[in-house]
From TrEMBL:
SUPFAM superfamilies: Aldolase. This is 2-keto-3-deoxy-phosphogalactonate aldolase. Pathway: Carbohydrate acid metabolism. Keywords: Carbohydrate metabolism, Lyase.
Length: 204
């Protein structure tokens, strides 16, 4: 089963990259990003992409500049996630045949992202807009627009976000914090996936 969850591994050390990635994939999460403000992120991305590219989409988060897109591409990454909506970053990402998930909050940012080719909208921080805010914006977005709630969304409220129209989630500290062991992450990932699957089934 493919799940619309992006694992956010902020602070990941390259020495931890492979075992952490392996347990996340085994739990059923197959989109993983390493924010570029992590220690030596391109080294982690390269190792993860080399080992797991056939099993998961590996890429970078906190991507703010065009040059960073090229760097992630060179490291083998296939997705670009940003906290903001930068048309130049989006267009460059698509020109490199990578997936683009820019950060948005307002209708203006949403439509700017979509017009420039974004594959999905990252509502960040989701805690500020809330499910009610997302529901209001969904009324004007093109039907079928992929929307991801990031920052304030987790197993405790997946159902609320789904009901509002979210199609997926980005999960950070609820899944991984620097220093966490692979066993820790495996346990958390299993709980997140179970809550996600339960919410999906409840909504059918």
């Amino acid at each position: 089963m493919s799940r619309n969850i992006i694992a956010i591994l902020r602070g990941l050390d390259p020495r931890e990259a492979l075992p952490i990635t392996e347990v996340i994939i085994n739990a059923g999460i197959t989109r993983i990003e390493v924010p570029l403000n992590s220690p030596n992120p391109l080294k982690s991305i390269e190792a993860m992409a080399t080992t797991f590219s056939s099993q998961a989409e590996i890429g970078a988060g906190t991507v703010l500049e065009i040059e960073q897109v090229h760097q992630v591409k060179s490291a083998g990454g296939t997705l670009i996630v940003s906290p903001d909506c930068n048309p130049d970053v989006i267009r460059t990402t698509k020109a490199e045949n990578m997936k683009s998930f820019p950060g948005v909050m307002t209708p203006t940012e949403c439509f700017t992202a979509l017009r420039n080719g974004a594959d999905g909208l990252k509502f960040f921080p989701a805690s500020l807009i809330g499910p009610d805010g997302l529901k209001a914006i969904m009324a004007v977005l093109p039907k079928g627009t992929p929307t991801y709630a990031v920052g304030g969304a987790g197993p405790h409220n997946f159902a609320n976000w789904f009901e509002a129209g979210a199609t997926g989630f980005g999960i950070g500290t609820a899944l991984y914090k620097p220093g966490a062991t692979a066993a820790d992450v495996s346990e958390k990932a299993a709980r997140i996936v179970a809550a996600y699957d339960q919410s999906v089934m409840a909504g059918k």
